[in-house]
Write a structure and sequence with these properties.
The protein is an all-beta fold and 122 residues long. The chain is built from no helices and eleven strands.
């Protein structure tokens, strides 16, 4: 399994970025996908997840600003990030995981992308 993340960079507060994660070695259309991030000195945290049917869940801190989506034909998951804040600065990782239907939330799996750095200047 390979997950290739891209799209990170330096952006001013209030700006936007779109992250992409191309997957190979899996049947993408039957997998839930997620984005995590890890800021310096902090634990990795879930940002957003999407299941095979397109249902999504988000961390409270990004609701209304970030949108996760998927293109099964391209085996790619996206994270559109708008109204970026300095506290969004982190390395962002994509993940292949599962979906907890009883709670409507994403659960992480064993495969991670290499990470892409997002830096938001204030």
């Amino acid at each position: 399994v390979q997950l290739q993340a891209s799209g990170g960079g330096l952006v001013q507060a209030g700006g936007s970025l779109r992250l992409s994660c191309a997957a190979s070695g899996i049947i993408f259309s039957v997998k839930a996908m997620g984005w995590y991030r890890q800021a310096p000195g902090k634990q990795r945290e879930l940002v957003a997840g999407i299941n095979v049917g397109g249902t999504t869940n988000y961390a409270e801190s990004v609701k209304g600003r970030f949108t996760i989506s998927r293109d099964n034909a391209k085996s790619t998951v996206y994270l559109q990030m708008n109204s970026l804040k300095a506290e969004d600065t982190a390395v962002y990782y994509c993940n292949v995981g599962g979906w907890k239907y009883y709670s409507g939330s994403y659960s992480s799996g064993d495969y991670w992308g290499q990470g892409t750095l997002v830096t938001v200047s204030s």
